[in-house]
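Supplementary Text 2. Reproducibility record for the structural model of the 126-residue chain.

All settings were left at their defaults, and a single model was retained for analysis rather than an ensemble. We include the record here because the model underlies the residue-level annotations in Supplementary Table 4.
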Amino acid sequence: MKNYVTKAERVRRKHWNRKMWRRCKADWEEALSPVTNQYLKVKVACVVMWDSQDDKLKQGRDFSYLKSLSDNYRPYYEEGYNQEELKDILINLGYPKDHAIKRSTPPKGADYEQYRRLKKKQEAQL
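Retained model, structure tokens:
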């Protein structure tokens, strides 16, 4: 009889961050130990936590260390590092380059989105 693999298990095996699936608390501490900038370490923990919130994919993963770091996040931490450093650390943790660039780029905000829609609407009227 053939072994049945659930859809969640197939997704888990194919997902780009499958190297990170097996990390436990000690592995996360070791992976983030070279980061000396405390603001950057907290931001990296937040990004990994935010990207790993799917309940199907969270089973059996230990995020206690990342959770303890991400609980310290404050908006002014964004000024304590540059996006290039964040991108490099995310790549070292196992993020693909395109994902790391996307996650290290700060969001443009609601004002930008409103301006973009208004501009698109004006161009459509011409």
